[in-house]
Each structure stands twice: as C-alpha cells, then as structure tokens.
Specification:
By secondary structure, this protein is α+β, with helices and mostly antiparallel strands. It has a domain at 37-127: Immunoglobulin-like. Helices cover 18% and strands 47% of the residues. It has 2 helices and 12 strands; from the N terminus they run E-E-E-E-E-E-E-E-E-E-H-H-E-E. The protein has helices at 127-156, 165-170; strands at 14-22, 25-33, 37-47, 51-53, 58-67, 71-75, 82-84, 90-93, 102-110, 113-124, 174-182, 185-192. The strands form 4 sheets. The protein has a 4-stranded antiparallel sheet with strand order 3-5-8-7, with no helix packed on it. A 4-stranded mixed sheet has the order 4-10-9-6, with no helix packed on it. A hairpin with a 5-residue loop joins strand 7 and strand 8 (90-93). It comes from Lophotis ruficrista.
Length: 195
C-alpha cells in the first residue's frame, strides 16, 4: 500500500493483508478496501464526427469514472429523432436535421457528486452542397433523356409498315436502313422518302 496519509485517495484502494503471530503459530487475513469517489474524467465522443451532413446518422457517447458507478443525464437540442441507450450513456440520432445542431452536455452523477462534459455538434445544411448535388442529378437526367431521344429517333422515326422489299430497294423513294436475320427469315428496314 502507499505510505500512510491523513487523506484517503484512490491509490489507497486494494487488498491489505494482516498477519498475527505468537508462540503457538500464526494467522493471516486479507481485507479488500474500495475507495469511493465522485465522477471524474467525463469525456464525450461523437461518432463518426461532430461535423454531420444533413440526413446522416451519428451518436454521442459519454464516459466517466466514479465509484459507485455514475448515472448519466443529458442536456441537448430537443428533436424527435433521438434514441437513448438503455444505460443512458449514449444518444443516437438518425437523419440529422437543423434541430440536432447545438451543444450536447452529459452529466455523470453518484452519491459523492457530479461532473459534466460538453461537445458541439454541427449539421451542415450548405445550400451550395445541396445545389451541387441537385445539379449533378439534373445533368445525369439530361444525358439520359438525350440518349433515350436518340434511340427513339433511330428506331421509330421511319415510317413503319409492310412493303415489298424488292420494289422498295429499286425505288428512288426508299433507302434501305438495315437487314436482320430472324426466325421467320430476313427482315429489312426501309425508309420511304417524300416524293
């Protein structure tokens, strides 16, 4: 054990052994001493980060030392998307919004006292980020529509119907577009031009 001191500290906790001896023998006895203390070293951690994108999920964890084990309380921005752990040591947020921005304070308490710690959470609602994501979505949509329009013109812009291929091939009013092999024989694509 540490040297005797009028003030008990956490360093005094441990197992002490007493040995008594006389002419008839000796006896030993162990005594375990626990030193109780108020909560100390309160720390908060935001996972994955204290800078959160709008719509993302995050959690805030609180840890503290103390004997007896401390209980935990929170002061934080009120929002409908909060979920507390069974032991109240952490709070999870799903789909971060502006209401989740602010100071998260955890207070650890036992019968010897209490201690608090805080962390600031920022929710990024940058309009530039939102506009950039919408712009990239719009560009992808425009490219898709252009490709679909080209395919439509290529496949359906010609006048469709049944024609005598031999007559159409010799006519100045027809242009042969393509020929395909099919189970029913050969199929020709032709385009009739205006007279």
């Amino acid at each position: 054990p540490p040297p005797p001191s009028p003030n008990v500290t956490r360093a005094h906790a441990g197992t002490y052994q007493c040995q008594a001896t006389n002419a008839h023998g000796s006896a030993r006895r162990n005594v375990t001493v626990a030193v109780e203390y108020s909560p100390a070293a309160v720390s908060l951690r935001v996972l994955p980060s204290a800078n959160v994108s709008r719509g993302a999920s995050f959690s805030v964890e609180c840890r503290a030392e103390g004997l007896p084990a401390p209980t935990y309380g929170w002061a934080l921005p009120l929002a409908p998307n909060l979920r507390f752990a069974a032991d109240n040591r952490s709070v999870a947020v799903a789909g971060a919004a502006a209401a989740n921005r602010g100071l998260y304070t955890c207070t650890a308490t036992n019968r010897h006292g209490q201690r608090a710690g805080s962390v600031m959470v920022r929710v990024d609602e940058s309009w530039l980020a939102l506009l950039a994501s919408l712009g990239s979505l719009g560009a992808a949509t425009a490219v898709g529509l252009a490709a679909a329009g080209g395919y439509y013109l290529k496949t359906t812009a010609c006048k469709k119907g049944e024609y005598n291929v031999r007559d159409a091939e010799g006519s100045s009013e027809a242009a042969c577009l393509h020929r395909q092999r099919h189970d029913r024989g050969e199929i020709y694509g032709i385009q009739l031009t205006q007279p």
